[in-house]
Amino acid sequence: MKRFILGRLRFRRGMILVLAMFMVVLLAGCGGNSGASSNTEANKTSSNNAETSDKAVSAAAAPVKITWWHSMSGAGEKAINKIATDFNASHPEIQVEAIYQGKYDESLNKLKASLGSDSGPDLMQVYEIGSKFMIDSKMITPVQKFIDEDKFDLSSLEPNITRYYTIGGQLNAMPFNTSNPILYYNKDAFKAAGLDPENPPKTFEEFEAAAKALSKNGKPGAAIAIYGWFMEQLFANQNAEYVNGGNGRDTAATESLLASDAGVKTLEWWKKMVDEKAVANLGRDTDDTDSAFAAGQVAMTLNSTAALRKMVDAVGGKFQVGTGFLPRPADAKEGGVVVGGASLYIMNNKPEEQQKAAWEFIKYVASPEVQAEWSVSTGYFPITKAAYDQKVLKDNMVKYPQFQTAIDQLHASSASNATSGAVMGVFPEARQIVEGAIEEALNGQKQPKKALQDAAAQITDKLKQYNETVK
Ligand SMILES: O=P(O)(O)OC[C@H](O)CO
Question: What is the CATH number of the domain that holds 217?
Fold first, then answer.
């Protein structure tokens, strides 16, 4: 593809330069022996022609412009802007404009609103749970098309990552920012509470015991945000599927399994800790739990590895930040985490030249060098194994060994439909419904099982409606 675009531009540029040089030689020849003034004239003419040809070159070489909508703020946005700037500097034939469009939900809604017009982007970052919707919408060109045409080698990509985005036998989007949820804990507070700072809790039971030990005078020792992603991950960590149809991967999901044993066990555990005042309920936003953790108000929390750079910076050495795996019930022997974060889609309503330029950019973003820098600047782990050989990543691991946890957790996850992640077109809505159910249970409005059953019925209903529309 790059060869195609570059080839066309270079051919045009080359032809213009050859013509310009021919004119210069011709005019210089015309000046002949006519002395200094004639030479000056010839030089002028030559320089005029060169100027004309430069203009022609720059007009002919006008870069292909592509817009990239993304949802990264803070450290992520800074890193994204750097990627785009560096790419533009090294690829003058393509210019990428990165535009922040709000959090994942918001940017996807903006994309939906842009459908039917060409006001949308060329390249779109969509969170993992938007995958099925993006495919069913038929508004994308699967990256598999470019991979095949370009014979792009996927072998160095993390299989656990491509597994998530391989739906319908092909890679529809290129993974970009990949994460999983980890435990963040305050090593100093652990020491003070008589807990082992080098041995974070691994099970639900150990987490509860640690949270109690860290609680003081009715002030909870931990906080967990009401984030549907955690429920999804805590299911996978018990190797439990979230929807039927092999987690929606074998056949289209028609039923939510939210109220199954894995869900009930998880929500009962969570509610018990809130009732015991071992875990604080600070609402849905992980920014609030992060702030409480960074301020030393709670000593354990859960969040994406994507928050790691920000967290380490926010704590600023006030205490030692420890990281651990996401806990699971002691009797759950298998499972693992699902790849979170987002991937990049090429929109199919843009001219072919722009789609190819978007693919060029994707390849750059997937390179070991860019992935290593991206990982160090954020906490997302690299999509390619080759990034681990990059010095910048190696140095960062030495300085911040916490960055290793999510990678180890990813590699420790067993491969199954549960850990590949659920697939459903109504996932964004389903996540909101789940968060409502968790709230109802934690606030005591409903028993955990009842809250989950009601939510599961709503999701199943949405799945039914959705499946009707995509038939
Ligand atoms: O915060 P991120 O980017 O790690 O994403 C978390 C979830 O996967 C979003 O659905």
Answer: 3.40.190.10
Q: What is the span of the domain harbouring residue 221? A: 181-336+426-469
pLDDT one digit per residue (tens) for the chain, 471 residues? 444 444 443 434 433 333 333 333 333 332 222 222 333 333 333 333 444 444 444 445 799 999 999 999 999 999 999 999 999 999 999 999 999 999 999 999 999 999 888 899 999 999 999 999 999 999 999 999 999 999 999 999 998 899 899 998 999 999 999 999 999 999 999 999 999 999 999 999 999 999 999 999 999 999 999 999 999 999 999 999 999 999 999 999 999 999 999 999 999 999 999 999 999 999 999 999 999 999 999 999 999 999 999 999 999 999 999 999 999 999 998 899 999 999 999 999 999 999 999 999 999 999 999 999 999 999 999 999 999 999 999 999 999 999 999 999 999 999 999 999 999 999 999 999 999 999 999 999 999 999 999 999 999 999 999 999 997
Q: Does 157 lie in the same domain as 127? A: yes
Give the ligand 1 atom nearest the CA of 431.
10
- Tell me whether residue 154 is in a domain: yes
The H helix count followed by the E strand count for the chain is 21, 13
Give the other-Cβ count within 10 Å of 144's Cβ.
18
Q: DSSP of 26-52, one letter per residue?
A: HHHHHHTT-HHHHHHHHHHHHHHHHHH
Report field, pTM of the whole predicted structure over 0.90: no
The residue to mutate among 176, 178, 229, having the most atoms of ligand 1 within 8 angstroms of its beta carbon, is 229
Closest residue (by CA) to atom 4 of ligand 1?
341
Residues in the chain: 471
Which residue has the CA at smallest separation from atom 2 of ligand 1? 341
Nearest CA to ligand 1 atom 8: 340
Distance CA 275, CA 461 (A): 32
- Considering the domain architecture, whether residues 161 and 188 belong to the same structural domain is answered as no
Q: Which residues of 191-216 are buried (b: 16+ CB within 10 A; e: fewer)?
A: eebebebeebbeebebbbebbbbbbe
The residues lining ligand 1, judged by C-beta closer than 6 Å to any ligand atom, are 104, 127-129, 177, 179, 229, 304, 306, 340-341
Q: CA-to-CA distance for 110 and 101, rounded, in angstroms?
A: 8
Tell me the best of 71, 73, 127, 184 to mutate to test the pocket of ligand 1, counting ligand atoms within 8 Å of each CB and taking the most.
127
461 shares a domain with 327: yes
Same domain, yes or no: 311 and 185:
yes
This complex has an ipTM of: 0.99
Note whether 331 and 348 are same-domain residues: no
